Amino acid sequence: MRERYPASRPVGRRQFLALSVAGLAAAGLPRPARAQAKRSGELVAGLSERMLTLDPANHYSISSTSVHRHMFDPLVDVTNDSKFVPALAESWRAVNNTTWRFALRKGVTFHDGTPFNADSVVFTLRRVKDNTKLIKSFVYQDIESVEKDGDYAVLVTSRRPFGSLPAHLTMLGMLPASAGKNEEAFFQKPIGTGPFRFASWTHGDHIVLSANPSYWKPGVPRVEKVTFRFIPELSTRAAGLRAGEIHVVDRVTPDLVETLKNSRGVKVFDVPAVEAQRWIFQLAKEPVKDQRLRQAISLAIDRNVIIKDLLLGYGRPVDSPVPPGLIGHTSLPPKPYDPEKARQILRQAGYTNVTLDFVLMKDLYPKQLEITQAVAAMLGEVGIKINIKNLEIATAREHRSAGTYDMFFSGWAHMPHDPDWYFGQWFTRAGSEKLTRYNNPRVEQLIAEGRVPDPKVRQAKYEELERILWEEEPEIWPYYSVAIYGVSDRLRNFEPRRDYYVLLSDVAIV
Amino acid sequence: MRAYVFRRLGQAALTLLGVSVLVFVVLRVLPGDPAKMLLPEGAPQSAVDELNRHLGLREPLHVQYAIFIRSVVRGDFGQSFQYRAPALRVVTERLAATVQLAVAAMFLTGAVGVSLGIVAAVRRGTRYDFASTLFAVLGQSLPNFWLGIMLILLFGVALRWLPTSGFESWRHLILPAVTLAAFPTALVARLTRSSMLEILGRDYVRTGRAKGLAERAVVLRHALRNAAVPVLTVLGLQIGTLLGGAVITESVFAWPGMGKLVVDAIFFRDFPVVQTVLIFSATIFVLINLLVDLLYTVIDPRIRYS
Predict the structure, then answer these.
(1) Rounded-to-integer distance, Cα B48 and Cα A437, Å
(2) What is this model's ipTM?
(3) Which tens digit of pLDDT belongs to each residue from B125-174?
(4) Separation between Cα atoms, residue A12 and residue A22, nearest integer Å
(5) B275, β-bridge pairs
(6) Are residues B157 and A431, on separate chains, in Cβ contact within 8 Å?
(7) Among A331, A481, A504, B175, which residue's beta carbon has the most beta carbons within 10 A?
(8) Residues 199-258 of A with CB under 8 A from B
């Protein structure tokens, strides 16, 4: 399982304000002219992960989310520049710090013709909250109640402020209330309100979706049929693209870009992802619990060499723990490369012959082993010896839980385009208990205060929090990842997503 | 004969019980937590504990095993952790792909491997022999991964004669079957050659030729039949292996077979799927071995079981 979750895009403060406070007044916006572009053609996408389930509440897989997004609509959608925009909710607003009100779109029907209304939302939200077997359930445990407010509005109250709720809802497809009668049967052949209908699924190989002719968004979808093929092996995915069998592939690695660019009929798109790589320290363990040592390590790493020579430019320098665009992002001074200063700090602090274990989850991140080897060499220059432990993922994670590591190669895609999850997990005592053992009461307080719905408050809290983290360096943020896609030149209107989704509803083929 | 078969079946049942215990215990002593692998990184410990409870992993090991065996007897192999569906269904869904690929590869192996071996033996020392040996060496030394990618690049990307990957029509089957067959074909070719050479030197072959039998009859009816016993053994073992899944070939061609399924399941600590696949392939392996032993009696009437 990847440690990457669907990345979420940060919402700029103003955007967020404009969107959420104005209640995404899109309800009242004039609809685009009903330019009923003629639907034609078929798209084939090659995804890197196999889809395991058709239940949108039961996974955090990015590939599965890509597929599900075509069948099920969420209440809230998120654009590629991390703006939250209406989907099945026409607008939403925070009634108070612990209550959200969602006004729903009217005239939307599920694929079987039954109307979408407040009952669907109440069912979907209560289900994910109450059924703790569902993988997404833990995210919604703060919800206290979900109530109808008429047929086309829903009130969601939570035990504590839940400012990131609209962001989380971008990942939760709405189900018809009738799904509850026999869930197992429902998810064999599910229906949603999305632009495509489920047609067939050959497990482990591909899923076929056909256009929903009565989709509520005019002019969408633009093709008759979409097939998602699951091809975990990148060279095979790329071969399918080059052979013209597949029109778009995700998760291209930097070293394959040139090959694809030189292939007839293939274009390569890249975009800075909403994912930050992070090398975490075990903060309860000598000697890396010492901030001076961590600072020396940070100073001894030449991030530009990693980005330029190992990632071939497909990485971005980091200026904040949270990638640009997300709420809370603030641009902080770049971390310098200064091995001389690193040596000096180590000397002053009395560190000689330091040996550290750097644990990797095997084959999870592109180029991770080469990058770690380069870092080991850089740290060797200042007298720190690195033991690289390249372990099978489950085993590596056990080491992390047990705290038997010094450094750990990791990454975080801000899945719901909101940093609350990341902060809450890694920088609160309870969250980091089995991870890094981070503990700073001030940071914990800022995270709690940053959970309110008001984007201005959130931005201010997160800025302060990020400054503290930037100073403490409880982890090293070496680079932001770049999402690379290989795309057939027959596609029109393809948008390379920063969250690694492959979304084809608005894509045409010529 | 019948008593022999029953005895072997009894032994098979014991073997399978042993396999089930072994698989069950080994999976659970491996480091790694299934719930943690299912949940995203950012899941709190409480969610991990809750999910493990739902998965039935908080019971003592012997209780878990008792529940498992009781269910297996009823034909229920448990729910796959990853797929949230009955493990048996998840596995059988992949069975069609696995069987197709295995049968196609075995067909190639038998047809090509045995033919090459015969030609090489009969034309010993000629360029046919040399070509066949070269093929055998290549087939056994080229890594499947590399061979698969090269076939894809040549026939899929450059020539566009065949699809690069996927599981749909018979055309999708060709490249993976060739890739998978390369190694066993080479093995069978070499084995057939040496086995045939030995037989062709026997007195009864000389007698056959002396009494004026056509060369074809000498080679196919008298020599091959006697040379076939070791070849059949190897083919049987290969079928067992292939039916268990061919991980690398399946990965390269995105073929939805059992090999990749079980490797992923081990990786994600999806215990029910691993258990199902292993018990399943152990069963097939045991049965095919039995079948091969019985086939010997058909090929070589001197072999008798009692």
Answers:
(1) 17
(2) 0.86
(3) 999 999 998 988 998 899 989 999 999 999 999 999 999 999 989 999 99
(4) 15
(5) none
(6) no
(7) A504
(8) 202-206, 229-233, 235-237, 239-240, 242-245
